Queue: 4 jobs
Job 1
Amino acid sequence: MTTRHIREEEVLERIERARRRKPRVREERITLAHGAGGKATQTLVEALFVEAFRNPALEALDDGAVLGVDGARVVFTTDTYVVSPLFFPGGDIGDLAVNGTVNDLAVSGSRPLYLSAGFVLEEGFPVADLRRITASMAEAAARAGVAVVTGDTKVVERGKADGCYVNTSGIGVLDRAGDAPALGPGSVRPGDAVLVSGPIGEHGVTIMLARGELDIQADVTSDTAPLNGLTAALLDAVPGGVRMMRDATRGGVATVLNEVARAAGRTVVLREAAVPVRAPVGGACELLGIDPLYVACEGRFVAVVDGGRAEAALDALRGHPLGEGAAVVGAVDDDPSGLVLLKTAFGGTRIVDTLVGDPLPRIC
Amino acid sequence: MTTRHIREEEVLERIERARRRKPRVREERITLAHGAGGKATQTLVEALFVEAFRNPALEALDDGAVLGVDGARVVFTTDTYVVSPLFFPGGDIGDLAVNGTVNDLAVSGSRPLYLSAGFVLEEGFPVADLRRITASMAEAAARAGVAVVTGDTKVVERGKADGCYVNTSGIGVLDRAGDAPALGPGSVRPGDAVLVSGPIGEHGVTIMLARGELDIQADVTSDTAPLNGLTAALLDAVPGGVRMMRDATRGGVATVLNEVARAAGRTVVLREAAVPVRAPVGGACELLGIDPLYVACEGRFVAVVDGGRAEAALDALRGHPLGEGAAVVGAVDDDPSGLVLLKTAFGGTRIVDTLVGDPLPRIC
């Protein structure tokens, strides 16, 4: 007991020291890795943005900031979309931009209400393509039950953008009955179950293949979809039992779980065999030499729930059309390592680290 | 009297017909003019964005959307900044992005509270420049009393952007005591006075000269500044007397007043001699062959106020450091032309139309 206790304290101290250490960007110039959602992005965000803008809402580093506005509890989030190509099987930059921001609001536990749309257009961009993109945004907004209420358009000279970039910011409201505890990795406890809402990696693989640079054919389409119906179904089914939710976009499920493990100061143990990956996605990842755990989804989220209510949570997800492929993929262990461990199909264990580098640039 | 009455009806009918006519984008490809804030931008916004996203908040076409969120009255706005060069006398893309969005919230009559920041970075962009930009944003946010609470970073390959683009979206709250009537061109009446909060055109001219393409030297710096203190001072000084406020950014004072005249179905009469233009700005405009009325400001706004309270309004503006150069520049006439007329210094009258084309690309 004593030995164990000392070990824990030492580890906690080491983690605390690492936390106090000021993050530093060592590179002199921005690289694609700084936009990949992995380690370089984290360092950039912590060293530059958090350092410059210091405030509690930002420092929580969630996908959405929880704010008080004249008595209302509002969630505010932003994302710029630079996906290439603009049109791909299963979607385009338009519905991606709407769904992505809706999902950031949804996983915070809020009800998404309003979006803004800011366009950067390259001189010479076809008006017909822009029309297609706005139509797709409108359809996605209607499906998610949100309104695009304000916008902005900028045009830059040819060669100063890549057709069209779209920023969507969003406002959601936390108005669920009862005083649900705040969702977030800080409320994760040992014994909690880890779920994913469906098969992973479909969006990222679709984009890679849509670029046509690889000689791989696979029947894959993007999973882009609005998750607010599904998150509401989960919150309704296990009131008070959901610890946190996070959509698994850039950096994939692996990166989300690393954030959870680190913030909670616990170990997340994944069972490889339980992680749902459709055959064409798994096949393409094998050929590309990438792990589906790092591949972005745009219509899947990771949820950590009270272990005793994992079955009810799973039933709620599977009862929704967007959660049919949901699965319990692991659990939270009381070891304070801050690591994600994968129990492989062959009985081994390996550490699943945060994404390093950028194997899949501009997937969103 | 009868003749006059018939004329009015005819004019009103013509305006109504024009309003009902569906706007159409005739070009097949996006041009720089679509981003200039003038006629082409208006048509693009009305034909594509309003058409696709139809909802009352968007159709108001104000700089900010007024929304109900769980009992609170929230204003939501967005702007992407693509200014070139990124650093210029008097500011940079960072404080410009903060001030611009703060100002869109301020002129709606709201109290700006929270901003988001979405970066698109070009691979190879110096980290030191990004640090300078975020420091400038932080300083501007502190000055305006707002917090940057959420953000996003994307990186695109070299040659797919121009260093750094920044989107800022913002949330303000309408929580002033009393039930102030909604601000907007719809409440403008004949006899109202038109004010500008200071000398115009400084930002646009600064950017033009900072590009170094012209062999003109002038002692001009950007007017970029947060206007929320100044708008609050005005609203406090003439409660219920302010009809509308609008910051004169892309398209300048001329374009703002055309929107006012058209929306109000009245004539705005400007006195050229009353429009404050500092000598170096006037001189540069003359050399460049552009009219300062079309040149963007980033720290000035146009206000339409009850004519009987113009003096009180002017005093309030002049009593604030950012409004020292404020002036009454014209009045609203009951002629239903929807036009802006300029009484020139030489006793003539000319029509001041909305901006056509893009004489000053990427000024914000």
Job 2
Amino acid sequence: MSSQRATAFVPGHVTAFFSAHPDDDPAVAGSRGAGLTLADGVTVRVSAPDGAVDGDGNDGGGNDAADASDRDANADGGSRTVDGESRSIGAVDDVLAELDATAADVAVETDLPIGAGFGVSGAAALGAALAANDAFDRARTENDLVRIAHAAEVGRGTGLGDVVAQARGGVPVRLEPGAPGAGELDGVPATARVEYVTFGELSTETVLGGDTDALTAAGEDALDRLREDPRLPTLMDAAREFAREADLLVPEAAEAIDAVDAAGGEAAMAMLGRTAFALGTGLSDAGYDPEACRIDAAGARLVER
Amino acid sequence: MSSQRATAFVPGHVTAFFSAHPDDDPAVAGSRGAGLTLADGVTVRVSAPDGAVDGDGNDGGGNDAADASDRDANADGGSRTVDGESRSIGAVDDVLAELDATAADVAVETDLPIGAGFGVSGAAALGAALAANDAFDRARTENDLVRIAHAAEVGRGTGLGDVVAQARGGVPVRLEPGAPGAGELDGVPATARVEYVTFGELSTETVLGGDTDALTAAGEDALDRLREDPRLPTLMDAAREFAREADLLVPEAAEAIDAVDAAGGEAAMAMLGRTAFALGTGLSDAGYDPEACRIDAAGARLVER
């Protein structure tokens, strides 16, 4: 099953609310919270150069790093693009290093805005993990790959819970923080159309790097509410309350949320981004010109090339 | 979000190998093992009669059973069909009782053969859980619904591991037996075409009701092999060895597996059914006229009606 090229798709993820749970071990660090995964997401294409894949695929064990001669041969590193432009993403580089796949050519493609609360960096990291594992025949399990991508994302400070949510798909609820083995997930069973509008970037690193005590208290309250009544309208209401209590609501999102509410719909702000998202036709009904997609049912997956 | 009708799709699941782990608690009982989920699966449509859904949806807590007046009103029970013919499935009935949704009209539809090792009964139970939860607005989480369907399937003796595998999708590896909260899953990251041929029924109840010691020893060996090298060809090879060691191989499946091997492909027998499945075009290349689909990436999900 050695293969030279592989492609993965990872859904976008808008976080409705969260609490931050740092830890020295990036696989244990993470967040509690909930959000929606989106059928709009990130596609990652990985090509292994000739000679980088063990032809016989018999490393002997699934979790061994490749041997030293591979690492030397790959020292130069392959190309990195985002939407066709030369650009690297820190968490992706860390994933490739962990899989001894830095020689890969990696193309990240997405229609989602970057830095606007859709978890694009986490999706790119997870997609790179899935596709590089396949292209380089690294024989890691899904849990291993999620753990590697989660640790890379946490290590770079660009996210705490997107990767595990994106791996699951649907409407993930992060009951306990961290990667598989440490974290614990559930889900709100739902299918729905989702609309979103973006007003600009918001730095995840800045918010997560500051004092997160008030944010975390508000996030825990929101999670308690959702666990009491695990339904989408409750998730949206808990998200609005979280944004207010954690003092994260930006004016453009607040205005959109109010407009959707006035039109009889349900909207909230994506954490962390200058983005409002709504169920059904909420934003359209309120006079916005949103992007629209559905909740993603599958979570991250390899796809046909 | 109260709704009167809902539809769920659940992938088929062919078990490659397994070990049986009985327990007095059906949510803790289950199996270790691995298999493939299939894009060919089971669709379950649930309609709630007028008055069976709480209009305001405010039970107050997510996990309350509905009140006694609902239960009385629903005592008669709704219709049950499988592929359009009047027929009930024990595990489905138990799921509906647990969700206080026996008044539902439930239609199960599948192109998969029943009793041939595709986990149709587990898929029907899980699909009924997802769709009834939605149609009756019962506010259960995904983990709750998987637990209910798993316990119903185990209680009826018709399966031990299909439900948790079908909930996950992909190529699920059951590391620890049981429903969410007890069990533990991983997955082999893979996408592939799968072909299958069925030669008749095999009673899961009879095999699981007999002495399972040899079967379980062989299943544990197979799982150890897959964990050492979590790749599809290893899964298929471990499955063939399991079928021989557990003395479960039926002649028609053995013949098909040998023919696929002779043609350079990978095939195995579905546990428990008179069914052979192969990766890629294995069965076609060996001269069979198989059904074909792909590995299902998503797992069980609500779908648009």
Job 3
Amino acid sequence: MRKQELDTPYVIIDLDKTEQNIEAMQAIADKAGIGLRPHGKTHKLPQVGRMQVDAGAVGLTVAKLGEAEVMAAAGIRDILIAYPIVGEAKLARLVRLAEQADVTVALDSLDVAEPMSRAAEAAGVSFGVVVELDCGFGRVGLPPGQAVLELAQAVAKLPGLRLRGLLTFAGQSYDAADEAARRSIGLDEGRVAAETAAQLRELGLEVDIVSVGSTPSSRYAAQVAGVTEIRPGTYVFGDLTQVSLDAHELESCSLTVKVTVVSRPAPNRAVIDAGTKVFTMDGGDSPIGTGRGYVVGRPGITVAWFTEEHGMLELSQEEQDIGLAVGDTLEIIPCHCCAVISMFDEVAAVRGDEVEAIWPVAGRGKVR
Amino acid sequence: MRKQELDTPYVIIDLDKTEQNIEAMQAIADKAGIGLRPHGKTHKLPQVGRMQVDAGAVGLTVAKLGEAEVMAAAGIRDILIAYPIVGEAKLARLVRLAEQADVTVALDSLDVAEPMSRAAEAAGVSFGVVVELDCGFGRVGLPPGQAVLELAQAVAKLPGLRLRGLLTFAGQSYDAADEAARRSIGLDEGRVAAETAAQLRELGLEVDIVSVGSTPSSRYAAQVAGVTEIRPGTYVFGDLTQVSLDAHELESCSLTVKVTVVSRPAPNRAVIDAGTKVFTMDGGDSPIGTGRGYVVGRPGITVAWFTEEHGMLELSQEEQDIGLAVGDTLEIIPCHCCAVISMFDEVAAVRGDEVEAIWPVAGRGKVR
């Protein structure tokens, strides 16, 4: 099948570009001599997870236990759940997961670690643990200092748990004013993590994982001695948010949404068959002045606004002259690719114009 | 099962409140002597669609062909697809749908109507058509005037199509400054639709549907003579956006998200296991000063900000004194219920504390 035959809206993954994105980030990690552990929450696709591991990634990161189960079922062996696992139902699933994969969990309290320890011990399995360090984002994690050292020491003593090291996420890189600020955040994140790891080693603890990074900060944090791995996610496809952060080239964005024009109520207005239930409200405006998306090959079209199932396009005079009719299809690069893929049950994996496969988004809807 | 046993995040539908919401809107329509055709895009649940029809609704509205297929499969007979159906693949499905339900489609151009006519004629079926009139929202639809009359006349002549009347959507009611402005928008929408319907009748056309309304404007548009039906959607559950528009009472909101605290990194901060991939970025802040959601029974907790899988809560001193620990669960009324339900594969239908049923969100992911 050719992509021209796909009904709309449909998510199209360009395989050539995706492979290049995977290789480019792997090269950054390889050059720094550290591991790459891509975040699977971006793609939620075991097939892409396998591509990343086959290209040299040390394993995968996921946000949810359900995503971990999907990746383990696809044969991914080394999985970091960058999320505290809380509650009996999830602990029972975590035990089953640990029987088929090497599982490490990020956490920031004994309230999470102790029930994990009891569940592991009762089942005769073990879970890796990384302690989450907050380097300024203010989400999960303890700030650098005595508390984080004490938590790591306590975790190291709990049966069924293996203290692996530390994890940070410098999400503030998304709000940084410019590239210099992002560089500073990335370097700082790496430095704080490496210093804390050194303190843990002084206390006699083994630390083999010092895991850092968001897509915009990864390339900087990777340069800091002592960091052992980076966890970028969005780099695999790229999107307009990453372009606006100088973290991705527009031409390398490999995920598009194919849409159809369903109404032309005015010469300068067209309506497409996708709104927030496809593109979501995530992300700011396009950095290249095209609104809430970028229409590939039609830079004079602005993705002006969305309602749930409608997208309103504004056409420049030049685009009106080129023409756009009911039934015409377009491909649009979204503001936030991770959000878009969450809205679809399946995507098309495409090389050139040829649809190589329809992939179920196996990790979608794994909210628990 | 009791709702206390549901793992998180989980969407909980309170059946008692939902039934009351359904009855209250049906009473508004009944009092005005017009039909209620609820928008199914809010719930995407055939079970709730049936509740609405059983309570007196004339049929259902949907946004997507895939949603119509789900509702028809559940035995809903009268379905309005408030969306132009474009492309051969969808027309083939529309033909099959018309074999099992009475289907009416909204459109605003002959570019949509003519292929529909050809498909209907070839298959020996017929589609109802309502012409979409733009009463100021600037989305799909032609403005009042000659063009809309000409389109209706042309549609009436096309084989396989049955001109049913007109449809408007006053989405600008969501941006109105106050209740007086919303009232004005609703009355204006009804008046414009009724006047255009009268013009069509003068031209000798039969008009049995004059369909208006968003949830905030429905109760006003319903009062205008000549309007035959209203199409509110969100009223069935309510959410903080509707509360802020004086269109719903907080106490009547019947959809909540059950969540678990997974981190307590600071005395005034808690992190829950749901972010934008559950709550989405839709909707503004809560009208009652509680941020991006309202924690039932805990008014001193602010839902401060989200990332994809994390929700950050801020606790007042009083809430800190009450206490909130890792593992505690909360129920949160979201900003936009239609968006939240789209993120889940299933929801719990609950009466009191008892889970009466787990419903698959059968209309979710029906993007095409």
Job 4
Amino acid sequence: MSRDIQIGLLGSGTVGTGVLQIIRDHQKDLAHQVGSGIQVKKVLVRDMNKYQDIENAGELLTDKVEDILQDDDIKVVIEVMGGIDEAKDYIIRALKNKKNVVTANKDLIALHGAELVKIASENSCDLFYEASVAGGIPIIRGLTEGLSSDRISQMMGIVNGTTNYILTKMSQDGRAYDDVLAEAQALGFAESDPTSDVEGLDAARKMAILASLGFSMDVELEDVDVRGITTVTIDDIKYAEQMGYALKLIGLAKRDGDRIELTVQPMLLPAKHPLSSVHDEYNAVYVYGDAIGETMFYGPGAGSLPTATAVVSDLVTVVKNMKLGVSGRSIVPPLYHKQMKTHDEVQSKYFIRLHVKDQTGTFAALTSVFAKENVSFEKLMQWPIEHQIAEVAVITHTTTKSVYERIFAELEKMDVVVAVKSSYRVEGGNAE
Amino acid sequence: MSRDIQIGLLGSGTVGTGVLQIIRDHQKDLAHQVGSGIQVKKVLVRDMNKYQDIENAGELLTDKVEDILQDDDIKVVIEVMGGIDEAKDYIIRALKNKKNVVTANKDLIALHGAELVKIASENSCDLFYEASVAGGIPIIRGLTEGLSSDRISQMMGIVNGTTNYILTKMSQDGRAYDDVLAEAQALGFAESDPTSDVEGLDAARKMAILASLGFSMDVELEDVDVRGITTVTIDDIKYAEQMGYALKLIGLAKRDGDRIELTVQPMLLPAKHPLSSVHDEYNAVYVYGDAIGETMFYGPGAGSLPTATAVVSDLVTVVKNMKLGVSGRSIVPPLYHKQMKTHDEVQSKYFIRLHVKDQTGTFAALTSVFAKENVSFEKLMQWPIEHQIAEVAVITHTTTKSVYERIFAELEKMDVVVAVKSSYRVEGGNAE
């Protein structure tokens, strides 16, 4: 057994604490796998006074990043501090000082992943970021190793635990969005500023990372068409369920030939679809490959120990690569040039819910709008809701985004349409 | 781009055909990843005449294994011929000739995996077998890499597609075992001799492989306590469902402290458990780790292309390792000494279904048998079925296998018990 591998940890929040715990509790198993002990030499914290009751605090803690970046004994830097600019600066300096890096920072990787990977490669260092997508679920290895021989054509992910928790509670308890959000915040499942989660931005970052790897192209965050869950109502969920569907916030990355589309939005999935059974704060990524067909990775998408599992598993690979002398050599640059689909190429079914005047001719007028565009219905429901107003919910057969946008605009202008209440994409096949 | 990597393929059945197809169809993506082309130089077949209409048959095919094992240009041997003795002999000779090996052979790995891995290591060759468990699902990488930092405490697998298909159809269509088995054979989902599948032996082999890796110990096939699905009835499935459970053939590997248990048997799982939604011929492995909590890998457990995906993904890793000069160096020997639990240590809930005499005192007599052993009921149903006979179904709270065996023996002897119809373990928590 050779000398302990020395680690520097940037950040000591939720994930950092989990990393320290796993390295301590699983030391024997880790040492067996990598052939030497693993020791955290320094932890960068913002406020030294906060941690004075930790054992060894004086030796272990520092508020000067140079104590880690300039320490030649430290061979691996784990970045779990979050944020963009400072974290990026530290990671680049660590790589340039020939330190391997493991990060859990999805914001940073989604925005600057390609640049950082290039710097890692130039410095013969590893840069791994399994924890940046779907917490403990080993989806990045799944794509880059387990399915490395296949051609991935589609990925559908429930990759944000907060929004999945909110939608689950809305569906199960029949409670309104604001109500469930407030509860989630009280329980610590949602941030006090939940914007990044509920507006779909967090999921978009993860989908950009997955699409880059799964499609082997440089996908950027702005390629993702994003819509959050803030306008989802109980009615939408209940009507979807009556029609055999579940309403979920889905990150969708689709490839047809050389062209891709990328979106995060609330979608209807058939109730029997495996993603529809992913409840509460759990995450799952459904992957379609040409050869394998469909496969799914399921697990906890956040939390201290689950996320730390992914970080420390990356660390195991980093240390193994160090011992084999192959650090920085597993990087595969993108093979394909990114080409986004136009609205004429994006194909989908759609759900739309309308309030219409409950009078003769309404239905004929509505259906003629769809018929004019050659779009037929898979399912249709109509029932009266109040004086002279009826509610209509429709699921169309597959059409293009351009055609649907024309239909939508037309419906909004119609005299007989009192209000377009909601509209969602429908993916994952037909309901029973 | 350097010279093509030359492959020898042993076997040209279902999986072999898939391997050839993926290497051909995904050549560009594969070459990009590994840095050179991949070419199948020779395919070992039993009967040359069967394949004469294949392009290049004369050059590509051989019925002499030496054409592969003695060819110095061939650096990787893929074994997809199946069987034990011959395949083992060929693999050992390939490894001794410094050829890396990828195999899909679960029977061989379950029986001789440790020996073969040792020979691979001694010859600085890789030996990978992702395809041996759960077809295309990258579960072996999941355990050995994605969850490498965690301590796995439990694995529950639906790892045999044939039996899962049969149980799904029995449940959905209310049809008898024999009837569904005959249909599955006609459709090609079941072998003409289905023994290995329906008796649980195939699943046992896969669980032995998973337990060896997940628990880092040398688990052998005979450590697995096996019971198949041949005696499962529609009634069992229906009563389980009424009590909130699904009946599935589950491979269970459990570790408590230093002691493990390993079994394959039909079990009841709560209907909301993620494994309960795994239908038809699909496979899934549910993994519990101390740090990650629960995670699941889902996908096609068999089939030409899905299984070939796992084989060729292994091939990608083999070729990458060759180029990095680290072949045979990823092998981690077992860390722990295997210790099996005794029947006093195996804990579980149980379902038991009885036909009893419908007379005063029966119920009191039954419950006293359980009460004497301090075993209480989670759920209980009783209803009359024919003249003076009632059916009783019970789900117990957790007890040990020893205690349950005593209760079972006692019940079988009782006057008021006409017949013990069935008995199953209940795992995965409580039903709602």
